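Z., the sequence and structure:
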Amino acid sequence: MNIYNCHPYANCVNAIGSYECQCKIGYYGNGIECSPCPENYYSFNDTTCLPCPENSISLPIHGSILDCKCNSFNHYPNNQTSSCLPCDYGFKVDEILNVCQSNFFFIFIFNIFTFFFLKRNKNKNKNKKGKS
């Protein structure tokens, strides 16, 4: 039972001699009534939902612009411009964090793998020639 009449999707915040109901992330309202942010909107604060940037999508009940996924390849949602921006050259969108990250690590690992694979095959070929 909620003795403070806060909505089930709200948090009760203590104040000096009182309390305040605040809707949880992904919901908006006055705390006594809370509704989920609709599809393609995100929770800006506990009272407001804002639309995802143009050319992006989001499922309902998301709490941040980073929950909006840009439709364009290698673009990310920018919270300062409220738009989808491309990642810089050499960077790619991390599908989980929804931010641009350097490709350096992936290229580095790929190059190391290729080097050892080629070196191993070269050694196998030398051994075959030596046995003939």
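Residues 121 and 127 are 10 Å apart (CA to CA). The mean pLDDT is 79.

Let me know what you think.
H.
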